Structures are given as C-alpha cells and as structure tokens.
Amino acid sequence: MEVVSILACLFLSSLLSYPLLKKMWRPVPKQRAKLPPGSMGWPLVGETLQLYTQDPNVFFVTRQKRYGEVFKSHILGCPCVMLASPEGARFVLVTHAQLFKPTYPKSKEKMIGPSALFFHQGNYHNLTRKLVQTSLSPDTIRKLIPSIESVAISALESWSGGHVISTLHEMKKFSFDAGILSIFGQLNSNFRQMLSDSYRVVDKGYNSFPTKIPGTAYHRALLARKRLNQILSEIICEKKESKLPEKDFLANLLSFKNEKGEILTEDQITDNIIGVLFAAQDTTASVLTWILKYLHDDQKLLEAVKAEQMAIYEANGRGEKPLTWAQTRNMPLTYRVILESLRMASIISFTFREAIVDVEYQGCLIPKGWKVLPLFRNIHHNPEFFPDPHIFDPSRFETAPKPNTFMPFGNGVHACAGNEIAKLEMLILIHHLVTKFRWEVVGSQNGIQYGPFPVPHQGLPARFWKESINLA
Ligand code: HEM
C-alpha cells in the first residue's frame, strides 16, 4: 500500500484535531530536548536529491551508520525524524501511538477516498477497522479457500505454455481477484471485469504527478476512480436487494449500525472498499514475485518446498480434494519461506506518521508537525537481530524473532488488518505452483525496481510450464 511511497512525503493532511490530548500532553520544553543528529541538506530541497540519486535503502542505511538509530533529515519538503530501532518503532506505533497521526498526501487520499480507514485515528478508525477485521477473521477466510484455489489455478494455467510473462503483472491480477473475494465473496463476472478495468487505470495514475490536466495519467485515474464509485453503487444496490445472509466485508459495511442507529454513508462504504483493495493488491503481488525469485535462485530449497507440498497434494488424491484450513496451517517450510521473503524484500520499507505535539524520545526532540518514519527495512536487515541479513535463509525463522524486530505487517493500531488472508493466498498459490508447474526466469536476474515497492527488475519476466504428471 501507499505507506512505502517516498512521494508520500508531501504530507498535507490535517485529519483530526486533538484538543483534549493537547491539553493533557505537556509539550517538551525545547531547551531540554535537542533535535536528533543528522543533516537537513540544502535549503528547500533538503536531502531529496540524495534520496533519489541512490538506492533508497543505501540512503537510510548510510545515515543510520553515520548518526545512529535516531536521526533527522529533510525530504520532499518535510522535516523528518527516522527511527531505525525496534524500540523506536514500538514507541511511535504502539506505546505512544496517540501522539502520532497517519499522514498521506492529499492527492493520494483523494484517489483512494478520504473515508478509507487508514487515513483516520480514533472512533471512526476503530469501528471501520473492526469491520475489516471481522470480515477477514480466520473463521471467515477459511471458507474462501476453495475460491482462492480456483483463482490461483486459473491464473497458473493462463501463464503456462512457455511464453514470457511479467510475474509481477500476473501476480497483481491474482491478488486483485483474491481481494475481490475477500470483499464481496462471490461477485458476478461482469462487475468483476468492470472493477478490474477501472481499477487498473487508478493504479497506473496513483503514483504519477498529481495534476488535473486532461490526458495525464493522474487525471485519467481520477475519472476512473469516479467510475469505480458508480460501479460500486450498482453492486451495493444489488446486494441490498438480494438480502442474503452473507458475512463478507461489503455485507458487514452495509449492515453496520452504531448505538445511535446511524449507518455508514455510501462514500464511507466505497472508500473503504477501494482502500482495502488497494492495501491488498500490490503488497501481496510484490511479495509473491519475490518468493518466486528466491525459490528459483535456490533449487535445493525449491525441491524441499515441493516435497512438503507434494505430500499434501498426494493426501488430497492428487488435487482431487480441496486444501483444508488445517493443511494451510501446517506447511512449516513454505511458511518460513514466506516469512523470510517478507524480511528480505521488506516491501514496506518504512511507514509515515506525523507528530501532533512536541514529543521527546530518548532525549531527542521530535517537533510537532514533523514526519516520523519507523524504518522497518533497517530493522529487518540489522545483523544484531538477523545474522547475515543479506542471505536468504528461511531456517532463521525456526526460532521466533526477538520482539518488535520483525514487522512486515506493521505494528499497533494501524497494523495490517489483512495479514492472515495475505499469507493464506500466498500459501495456496505456492501449493499449486510447485506441485504442478515449473518456471524459468528470463533475462537479467538481478536488480531492483521501485514502483513504489521494491520488486525484481522488470517485474521478473519468466516462462511457466505445466509439469507432466507421472500417474504411476
Ligand atoms: C504481503 C502482503 C501485505 C503486506 C506486506 C502488508 C503490509 C501492511 C502494513 C505494513 C500496514 C501498516 C501500515 C502503517 O502502519 O502505516 C498495512 C495496513 C493495512 N493492510 Fe496490509 N499488507 C499486506 C496485505 C494486505 C491484504 C491482503 C489486505 C486486505 C485484504 C490488507 C489490508 C490492510 C489494511 C486495511 C490496512 C490498514 C489498517 C489500519 O489502518 O488500521 N493488507 N499492511
């Protein structure tokens, strides 16, 4: 989702005011706490050029080495404090979360929809988050296994035949379809196609320069976002008429009523649907793309994962029976491959918050209005917590990581509400991939692209073939 986008540092949000909190929280006397070490760069541009002319990960790592785990910078017009320690991330996201608010550029907020839960703090956030969590609870998602399997199988079938595909591009289609299942349950294929067509245009324009000039990617995306509202409005009408006792996210949004009998507005419903789709798609697709690269690069590991999955495949009468929830909870090696991929790739390298009052952390001042970035990737690549961090080694997850050192899904009140379904989708796709297909990466096998998540070069072009099944 958006959090990783470096562009997200335009930060113009003024979401909520906290008068009560401001009264209760005594500002830090400025003479006591000092700003953390670090460079604010050049006037106006700060260190933005340095950030853009090198690998962003190098930017953060070199500054951590130079200044320590708390340092300041100035990027894209915003003064920031970066926190590269587990304690720092926990301070901002968990123990002192009430002192920091989520912050996104207005242009992005407009594109997703300002009522989407991750722009909010407080009551509205709590209630919408509860609705997402109920809709994505283990009890609900276990019923989706057969549908996710059929989406995975038809995706894999369409890739096979030896033609070159962009793995990332295809994974995006898979995670979009899986996202649709988690939001609507079964959705008629016309609606699905219409949503997919418009969503693709929104996705393309989301990271482009925000301008209302007709013909630009951003403007086209704004128009497509309006179309999404119309399509969703039709889906909502149909859902209301059907009156089926369903438990999917849309049904839960529609049936919500607070203690005063108030219901959610249609804008609140549509913004949250687009928000969840948005949070679900690129994230899962990027991690899956990395998983395919890591497995391809380590054939011995791939064979071991295959052995684990073949045993399940055989137990299910060579795929005659669907996967069970218990089977998806008992794929230890595959699960460790997923965890290690989440750590290695750290696709959400950091997140953003904004200090709503002056805050003191470890003797350093974080002034009100400054952006605060917990640096997940730096923590995931710190040899103190993960020895030889640049080596892909799933066995490191045979023992649990130290508390707050592994946060691929964030932490605290805004932590990922979809982490269980994301892992389920990945396990299911890997199961069908390794038991029935093989693949070969095409062209340059190294290099990273940022779009905005780090992904393998050119989205990992690859060929897929269906393995001939030995029926002996
Ligand atoms: C591997 C895939 C995924 C990764 C790595 C991931 C990561 C994250 C992270 C780091 C956050 C917290 C952001 C912050 O604190 O600013 C987040 C939030 C969120 N994610 Fe995910 N996510 C993934 C997949 C999904 C899926 C599949 C869904 C839904 C179906 C989802 C729904 C959400 C929602 C709704 C939030 C906002 C929660 C809130 O603000 O309360 N995510 N995700």
Automatic annotation (TrEMBL):
It catalyses: 2-cis-(+)-abscisate + reduced [NADPH--hemoprotein reductase] + O2 = (+)-8'-hydroxyabscisate + oxidized [NADPH--hemoprotein reductase] + H2O + H(+). Transmembrane segments: none annotated. Its main location: membrane. Pathway: Plant hormone degradation; abscisic acid degradation. Its EC number is 1.14.14.137. Belongs to the cytochrome P450 family. This is (+)-abscisic acid 8'-hydroxylase. It comes from Salix viminalis. The lineage of its organism: Eukaryota, Viridiplantae, Streptophyta, Embryophyta, Tracheophyta.
